[in-house]
Hints:
Layout: E1 3-6, E2 10-16, E3 19-26, H1 28-36, E4 42-48, H2 54-62, E5 66-72, E6 79-85, E7 92-98, E8 118-121, H3 126-133, E9 141-145, H4 148-153, H5 155-162, E10 167-171, H6 172-179, H7 184-192, E11 198-202, E12 208-212, E13 215-219, H8 233-248, H9 253-270, H10 277-281, H11 284-298
Parallel strand pairs: 1-4, 1-8, 2-6, 4-5, 8-9, 9-10, 10-11
Antiparallel strand pairs: 2-3, 6-7, 11-12, 12-13
Helix pairs in contact: 1-8, 3-5, 6-7, 8-9, 9-11
This protein binds adenosine monophosphate.
Amino acid sequence: MSLLIVGSVAFDTVKTADGVAEDVLGGSGTYCGYAASFFATPTLMSPVGEDMPAGRLDEMRAHNIDTSGILAVPGGKTFRWVGRYNEDFSERTTEDVQLNVFGDYDTTVPESSRDAEFVFLANGAPEAQQAVLEQLPNRKVAILDTMNHWIEGSRAALGRVLTMVDGLLVNDEEARLLTGETNLIAATRRLTGMGPRFVIVKKGEHGALLAVDGRMFALPAWMAETVKDPTGAGDCFGGGLIGHLAGQGEATVDAIRAGMVYGTVVASFCIEGFSVVRLQEITRDDIEQRREKFLEMITWRQ
Ligand code: AMP
């Protein structure tokens, strides 16, 4: 079913103990779009600047991503983000954010995506997320991702858009920041009271929690031995999830749980390389094979 992903398309500079990747393709929408494209054909919506090479968009199209929603702003500069990881990747510091064209852009949804049924609002300004939702009267399932930048700076607008979505995706730190709860189970439960039918709290290498229809589930993460750059893992988790839901055409509890497994698997590939390099290399077969191993790893028959 039709899938629209809205988020940033960016140039990232990523610094790790092993090296630096400078001005590589990144962005919440980019990672989410690549991840979803294994399961459905997402339309990606984002502003970019004149500095975005056409080749990057050609690569997206070659990867089953519809780029008709990526609009170049005349004279504009693409969103830029600089992040540094500590040695074991347990901490990330944002060294610089330049919103550029992403700071205030035209949120008019392209005519061809107005009937979108599945929507993923990757990290971005809550005001823009709301403006997009208001143009999608046929949406069946909308999932929203957010981060500390928006929780701290646009809390009221975020509260409004939360009442319009079906699902919320946050990490543990963001869940605590949004609710003021230190206990993560309590925080997850509290978040469902803010509007969404289901809430997923990502805990990085410790997996994810799901609260839906009054029930709670826990999913471990893939045991990753090769970690080169964790940037985009959360967005890939979201992309795998919404891609699977759009492919299935429904968001039942079982579909959400299966989507979380796909999200985990795609994210585990993403972190094996800088930027979207690993996502461009792998196939759906690689995903299915790792999914089998993952399910075996987390299932205990007693
Ligand atoms: P993640 O590692 O899943 O948190 O996603 C990191 C990606 O999000 C990077 O590629 C950044 O370009 C992008 N990003 C960082 N800050 C923001 C922001 N404030 N709004 C939208 N995207 C962002």
